[in-house]
C-alpha cells in the first residue's frame, strides 16, 4: 500500500474579534479547542469567598466590640431609681376592733316569793330610780305562816319561863341540902339527886332559849318573804323587758319578771390581739363609733383588762366604759372601737412598693452612698399601701420603690430627684 501523504493545511477560524490579540488564533486540525472561562470563574469565586470571609470576620469583630462596649456601659451605668424615706412609727398605734355595746349594769329580776301579781307599776321603756316599786305580789298564806310562827314563839317563851322557875327551885334545894349532907343529916344519895336535878333544869333552860331563837329566825324568814312581795328596782335604770302582768302566777326563784339596765354608762368588751395587747392598760384612750351615726364619736377609756390572754385566740379581754348621759348609745348595738395603744416596741413604716418577695424571702433595697444594700425584713402589720416592720431598716433609710428584678447587691444607682411643680 502506498501511503498517501497529507499535508497539513490551515483551517480558517471565525473572524477575528477584538479580544486584544494582534494575531489570529490558529489551531491545527484534530486539536481540541482551548477554554479560558473556567480558570477565570474559579479565580473569581475564590476572590469572592475570601472577600466574604473577610467581611464576615470584620462584622463579627465589630459585633464583639459593640457587645463589650455595651457590657462596659451597663457596668458603668447607674440606673435612675425612685426612693422613699423610712420613718419611725407613731408613739401610739391605733387599733380598730369590732365590739358590741352593753349596759354598765344589767339585772334580770325574778320573783323571790310565790303568789299572784296584785299590781304592776312599770312597763318597757320606763326610767326608774333605785327603790322604785315595780310590782306587788299577794300571798295570804305567808301571813298565816307568820301568825303561826309568832304563836309558837310565844309558847316557847312560856316554856322558858317555866324552865327558869324550875331551875331556880333546883338551885335553892341543892344549896340547902348540900350543907345538910355535909353535916350528916341527909344521905349522900339525896345530895346527888339535888345536884343532878339542878343540872337538868339548867339544860332545859338552854334548850328553851334555843327554841326561842329558832322561832325568831323563822319569823324573820317569813317576814323577809313578805317583804319580797314588794318588787323594787335595785338601781337606777330603764326597764328593757317585762314578762308578767296583773294576775300572773309567779313562783319563788323561777319566774322572770323584768330586765333593768343602767345605760348612763356604756360598757364595751373587745378582744385585743397579742401583738397589740402588751400596751393595753387602764386609762388608754378609746373611741367608739356606730355605723348608723357616722358624724358622732363617743370617747371612753379602758377601765378593766384581763390579766391573761385567751389560750385559743391569743387575745386580751378589754373593757371600755363610755359615758352616755343622753342615751344616744343603746345596749346591744354593733360598733367599732378605736384604741390608741402606747407602743412598747419600736417599729418602722416602709412603703409597700419597696418590699420584694423572691427566693431569698422578704427584703428591701436601701441606697447607701449611691450603691444598693439589700436587707431582709419581717413585716409586723400590713396597712395596704404601707407595712410596719420591726427590723432590717432604720428611720431615715432610703428604700427603692418598685426595684428592678436584676438589681444586685452593691450595684450603683442614681436617685431620681423629686419633681417640683
Automatic annotation (TrEMBL):
Q: Which residues form the Multidrug resistance protein MdtA-like C-terminal permuted SH3 domain?
A: 349-402
Pfam families tied to this protein: Beta-barrel_RND_2 (PF25954), BSH_RND (PF25917), RND-MFP_C (PF25967)
Q: Does the keyword Transport apply?
A: yes
Q: Which GO terms describe its cellular component?
A: efflux pump complex
Top-level taxonomic group? Bacteria
The record's keywords, sorted A to Z, are: Transport
Q: Gene3D superfamilies in the record, alphabetically?
A: 2.40.30.170, 2.40.420.20, 2.40.50.100, Helix hairpin bin
The family database entries (InterPro entries) matched by this protein are listed as: Beta-barrel_RND_2 (IPR058792), MdtA-like_BSH (IPR058625), MdtA-like_C (IPR058627), RND_pump_MFP (IPR006143)
NCBIfam families in UniProt: RND_mfp
The protein's name in its UniProt record: RND family efflux transporter, MFP subunit
Q: What is the lineage of its organism?
A: Bacteria, Pseudomonadati, Pseudomonadota, Alphaproteobacteria, Hyphomicrobiales
Amino acid at each position: 500500500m502506498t501511503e498517501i501523504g497529507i499535508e497539513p493545511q490551515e483551517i480558517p477560524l471565525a473572524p477575528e474579534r477584538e479580544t486584544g490579540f494582534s494575531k489570529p488564533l490558529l489551531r491545527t486540525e484534530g486539536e481540541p479547542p482551548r477554554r479560558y472561562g473556567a480558570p477565570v470563574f474559579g479565580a473569581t469565586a475564590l476572590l469572592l469567598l475570601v472577600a466574604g470571609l473577610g467581611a464576615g470576620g470584620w462584622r463579627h469583630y465589630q459585633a464583639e466590640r459593640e457587645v463589650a462596649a455595651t457590657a462596659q456601659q451597663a457596668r458603668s451605668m447607674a440606673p435612675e431609681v425612685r426612693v422613699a424615706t423610712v420613718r419611725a412609727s407613731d408613739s401610739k398605734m391605733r387599733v380598730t376592733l369590732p365590739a358590741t355595746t352593753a349596759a354598765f349594769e344589767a339585772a334580770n329580776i325574778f320573783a323571790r316569793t310565790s303568789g299572784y301579781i296584785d299590781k304592776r307599776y312599770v312597763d318597757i321603756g320606763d326610767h326608774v330610780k333605785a327603790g322604785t316599786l315595780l310590782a306587788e305580789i299577794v300571798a295570804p298564806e305567808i301571813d298565816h305562816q307568820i301568825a303561826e310562827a309568832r304563836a309558837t314563839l310565844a309558847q316557847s317563851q312560856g316554856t322558858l319561863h317555866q324552865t327558869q322557875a324550875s331551875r331556880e327551885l333546883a338551885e335553892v334545894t341543892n344549896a340547902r341540902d348540900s350543907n345538910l349532907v355535909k353535916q350528916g343529916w341527909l344521905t349522900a344519895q339525896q345530895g346527888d339527886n339535888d345536884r343532878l336535878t339542878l343540872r337538868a333544869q339548867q339544860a332545859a333552860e338552854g334548850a328553851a332559849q334555843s327554841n326561842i331563837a329558832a322561832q325568831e329566825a323563822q319569823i324573820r324568814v317569813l317576814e323577809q318573804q313578805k317583804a319580797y312581795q314588794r318588787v323594787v328596782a335595785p338601781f337606777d335604770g330603764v326597764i328593757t323587758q317585762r314578762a308578767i302582768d296583773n294576775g300572773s302566777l309567779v313562783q319563788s326563784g323561777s319566774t322572770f319578771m323584768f330586765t333593768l339596765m343602767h345605760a348612763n354608762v356604756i360598757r364595751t368588751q373587745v378582744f385585743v390581739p397579742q401583738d397589740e395587747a402588751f400596751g393595753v392598760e387602764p386609762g388608754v384612750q378609746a373611741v367608739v363609733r356606730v355605723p348608723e351615726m357616722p358624724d358622732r364619736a363617743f370617747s371612753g377609756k379602758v377601765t378593766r383588762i384581763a390579766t391573761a390572754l385567751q389560750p385559743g385566740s391569743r387575745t386580751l379581754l378589754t373593757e371600755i366604759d363610755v359615758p352616755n348621759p343622753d342615751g344616744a348609745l343603746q345596749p346591744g348595738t354593733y360598733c367599732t372601737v378605736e384604741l390608741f395603744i402606747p407602743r412598747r416596741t419600736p417599729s418602722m413604716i416602709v412603703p409597700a412598693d419597696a418590699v420584694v418577695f423572691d427566693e431569698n424571702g422578704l427584703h428591701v433595697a436601701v441606697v447607701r452612698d449611691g450603691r444598693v444594700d439589700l436587707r431582709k425584713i419581717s413585716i409586723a402589720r400590713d396597712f395596704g399601701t404601707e407595712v410596719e416592720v420591726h427590723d432590717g431598716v432604720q428611720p431615715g433609710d432610703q428604700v427603692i420603690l418598685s426595684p428592678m428584678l436584676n438589681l444586685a447587691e452593691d450595684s450603683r444607682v442614681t436617685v431620681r430627684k423629686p419633681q417640683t411643680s
